[in-house]
């Protein structure tokens, strides 16, 4: 079942129209970040947990370490709608919770597609995802969107490796809308980057593929050389790539930057401290360049987390003593008095006592 295509806004073709872009952006952000999506035909909402069945499993990278998974409702019902940049929260059979960007077609009303890179040394979520087989059921919440697509007339899309997942539907939407777009895709080698077959069907004059084993690590000019004057840049990939784009964006000539991290942001101005786990008495060191969550996972690999960026709330713990250095925007002032998000927040005191 197909949803109808989103409307194309008026042409946005010079810096003066950035006001329009800004208003448009505010409209989209207020709509998508807060409310997620509804589809009048869907009987489910993004707020309801949904049991979805895996209906298709495809290997989409030559090294076989990226799998694309398609989920549908067991009754084939219409699912809540989404826009490019949206993601799902998946609750895995083990109890792990992970977020994955949607990389299918938003107009497919009865299925969601995500893609997962296998990370053997990760927290186990990717291995569990790779072990799923057609017919297995997972619990899903969403879709939600913290990286919304805005129909700029001119945009550069940059992806690093599995960071292509939110970018794929954005580029498809830009094509569909007749926008002036360019796509820069970076990765370690042609073996490792997913969806090459699909990208091969795109206009090759609008696509630049940069592989580390052929061209070296991309420079700021490699990444931003095609940034459109007065247009937008979207980037998703590893932290060093995003930092390179962020630090050099001002001289690119583009007017708007949107980025999404796939992993924890680097710790800034970190100092070491200790955490005490009140229920066991264990005391763990938190190094200057690691998070409380890192220390917890090292000690207890089953520790629950998801986004590692301070917005999902999965890693929240109660603080019994000490003063956290809150580095997120999710918790209320009241919540901050008694708890913290261990993935990004640190300590203002030499020790925090956690209710763990
Ligand atoms: S893991 Fe998502 S807020 Fe910490």
The SS-based structural class is alpha/beta
General form: globular
Bound molecules: FE2/S2 (inorganic) cluster
Counted by DSSP, the helix tally is: 9
Succession of helices and strands? HEEEEEHEEHEHEHHEHEEEHEEHEEE
| Overall tally of domains | 3
CATH class call of the largest domain: Alpha Beta
Mean of residue pLDDT? Answer: 86
Helix content: 10-25%
Poorly predicted runs are 5-38
Widest β-sheet, arrangement of strands? 4-3-6-1-2-5
Number of strand elements: 18
* Radius of gyration (Å): 21 Å
What can you tell me about this protein's structure?
This protein has 356 residues and is an alpha/beta fold. It folds into three domains: 50-144, Elongation Factor Tu (Ef-tu), domain 3, CATH 2.40.30.10; 147-261, Nucleotide-binding domain of ferredoxin-NADP reductase (FNR) module (Rossmann fold, 3-Layer(aba) Sandwich); 273-354, Beta-grasp domain (Ubiquitin-like (UB roll), Roll), CATH 3.10.20.30. It contains nine helices and 18 strands. The protein has helices spanning 18-35, 125-131, 164-177, 196-199, 212-215, 220-224, 239-248, 292-299, 333-336; strands at 50-59, 66-72, 86-91, 97-101, 112-117, 137-145, 154-160, 180-187, 207-211, 232-237, 256-261, 273-277, 283-286, 316-321, 324-325, 339-341, 346-347, 351-354. The strands form four sheets. A six-stranded antiparallel beta sheet has the order 4-3-6-1-2-5, sandwiched between helices. It has a five-stranded parallel beta sheet with strand order 9-8-7-10-11, with helices on both faces. A five-stranded mixed beta sheet has the order 13-12-18-14-16, with helices on one face. The termini are far apart. It binds FE2/S2 (inorganic) cluster. The site of FE2/S2 (inorganic) cluster has 12 residues, from loops.
């Amino acid at each position: 079942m197909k949803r109808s295509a989103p409307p194309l806004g008026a042409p946005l073709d010079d810096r003066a129209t950035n006001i329009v872009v800004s208003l448009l952006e505010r409209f989209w952000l207020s709509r998508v970040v807060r409310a997620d999506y509804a589809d009048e035909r869907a009987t489910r909402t993004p707020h309801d947990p949904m049991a979805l069945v895996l209906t298709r499993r495809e290997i989409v990278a030559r090294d076989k370490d990226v799998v694309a998974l398609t989920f549908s409702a067991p009754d084939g019902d219409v699912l809540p709608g989404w826009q490019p940049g949206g993601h799902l929260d998946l609750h895995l059979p083990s109890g792990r919770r992970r977020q994955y960007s949607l990389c299918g077609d938003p107009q497919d009303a009865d299925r969601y597609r995500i893609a997962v890179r296998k990370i053997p040394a990760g927290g186990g979520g990717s291995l569990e995802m790779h072990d799923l087989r057609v017919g297995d059921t997972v619990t899903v919440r969403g879709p939600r969107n913290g990286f919304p697509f805005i129909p700029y007339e001119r945009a550069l899309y940059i992806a690093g490796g599995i960071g292509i997942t939110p970018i794929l539907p954005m580029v498809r939407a830009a094509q569909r809308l007749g926008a002036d777009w360019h796509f820069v895709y970076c990765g370690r080698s042609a073996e490792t980057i997913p969806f090459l077959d699909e990208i091969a069907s795109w206009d090759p004059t609008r696509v630049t593929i940069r592989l580390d084993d052929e061209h070296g690590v991309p420079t700021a000019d490699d990444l931003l050389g095609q940034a459109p004057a007065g247009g937008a840049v979207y980037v998703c990939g590893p932290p060093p790539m995003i930092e390179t784009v962020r630090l050099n964006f001002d001289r690119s000539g583009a007017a708007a930057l949107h980025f999404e991290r796939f992993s924890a942001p680097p710790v800034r101005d970190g100092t070491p401290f200790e955490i005490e786990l009140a229920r066991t008495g264990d005391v763990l060191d938190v190094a200057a360049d690691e998070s409380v969550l890192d220390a917890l996972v090292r000690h207890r690999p089953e520790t629950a987390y998801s986004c590692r960026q301070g917005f999902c709330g999965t890693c929240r713990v109660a603080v019994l003593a000490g003063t956290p250095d809150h580095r997120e925007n999710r918790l209320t002032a009241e919540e901050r008095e008694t708890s913290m998000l261990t993935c990004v927040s640190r300590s203002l005191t030499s020790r925090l006592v956690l209710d763990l």
